[in-house]
Amino acid sequence: MVLLDGKKTSNVIKDEIAVEVQKMKDQGERVPHLAAVLVGVDGASLTYVGSKVRACERVGFESTLIQMPDTTSEEELLQKIKELNESKVIDGFIVQLPLPKQIDEQNVLNAVNPSKDVDGFHPENFGRMALDMESFIPATPFGILQLLERYQVETKGKHTVVIGRSHIVGRPMSILMSQKGPAGNSTVTLTHSHTKNLSEITKQADIIIVALGVPEFLTADMVKEGVVIVDVGISRVPDASKPRGYAIKGDVEFEGVSEKASFITPVPGGVGPMTIAMLLKNTLIARERQLS
Ligand code: NAD
């Protein structure tokens, strides 16, 4: 079994990005600048945004964290997005999800200038991605493709089963794995909460990408020998033995499944760090597109 080490791979990618940033500096160019908008004080969101900002420092990017109270109205947030869209110094920005109830998430994502949409959530980018055109690939699917590619996992002609059809992971993943390309050319089955006999389907899979948010959902009896496992899930499970009182669990019962798997991502240290690295990569791409 080979561990698909997202921590190590993401560090390699960050080093590659840092080299490009240094070249920009050497040429007297402005370095990439990522902004993150955080509305409210959700603990997990604050952790994610904090990691993203720290990652910017690591590669030499400029970063700006914009914190807005959880009473922020949709109009106020849209105004902030307008400012970021028009800014001459912000190359890309993200709005951390989830947003408070009074704000319509889709209205907000639709307001982001597609050329600064480094999360790849704008319908224009999603459509362009689905059509194999230049776009921003959402960071988590982009990270998974990179992991598969860099570990030379064979995807061509393989049966990939994706569990979960979210707009940010499952759905784009199912499209990307079926497209032409290094980590593509796969035959894809997209499964979700209405899928019947899921085990029968997963047992036929060469590759399983699990993104549903149910800790240890996928167990050893649901997979065949030699399967490739990508575990996207991140759940906080109460655990009194941990200093913070919780443990981070993926959607895969790692101990059992890893005994059958040929490749598997750990949680933490798998898809999570790759997501952050690919957000930086998208920001670099946004800056490079401005320069070209
Ligand atoms: P989501 O929470 O929006 O949706 C869950 C999906 O799972 C739905 O499409 C639903 O149909 C499907 N589902 C639910 N129960 C099911 C069942 N019994 N059988 C089959 N499918 C079922 O999904 P999301 O936003 O993609 O998040 C999924 C998990 O991935 C969460 O734990 C989230 O925290 C994590 N996540 C991690 C990263 C990362 O960087 N590692 C990024 C995004 C999301």
Task: Describe the model.
The chain is α/β, with parallel strands linked by helices and 292 residues long. The chain has 2 domains: 28-113, Rossmann fold (3-Layer(aba) Sandwich), CATH 3.40.50; 139-272, 3-Layer(aba) Sandwich (Rossmann fold), CATH 3.40.50. Helix content is 41%, strand content 16%. The protein contains 10 helices and 11 strands. It has helices spanning 6-26, 43-59, 74-86, 105-111, 123-130, 139-150, 170-178, 198-202, 254-260, 271-291, and strands at 2-3, 33-39, 62-68, 92-95, 159-163, 187-191, 207-210, 228-231, 235-238, 246-249, 263-264. It has a 6-stranded parallel β-sheet. A 3-stranded parallel β-sheet has the order 3-2-4, with helices on one face. A hairpin with a 7-residue loop joins strand 9 (235-238) and strand 10. Helix 1 (6-26) runs parallel beside helix 10, helix 2 packs across helix 10 and helix 6 packs across helix 10 (271-291). It is globular and about 55 Å long. It starts with a strand and ends with a helix. The site of nicotinamide-adenine-dinucleotide has 23 residues, from helix 10.
SSE map:
Layout: E1 2-3, H1 6-26, E2 33-39, H2 43-59, E3 62-68, H3 74-86, E4 92-95, H4 105-111, H5 123-130, H6 139-150, E5 159-163, H7 170-178, E6 187-191, H8 198-202, E7 207-210, E8 228-231, E9 235-238, E10 246-249, H9 254-260, E11 263-264, H10 271-291
Parallel strand pairs: 1-11, 2-3, 2-4, 5-6, 5-7, 7-8, 8-11
Antiparallel strand pairs: 9-10
Helix pairs in contact: 1-10, 2-10, 6-10
The site of nicotinamide-adenine-dinucleotide has 23 residues, from helix 10.
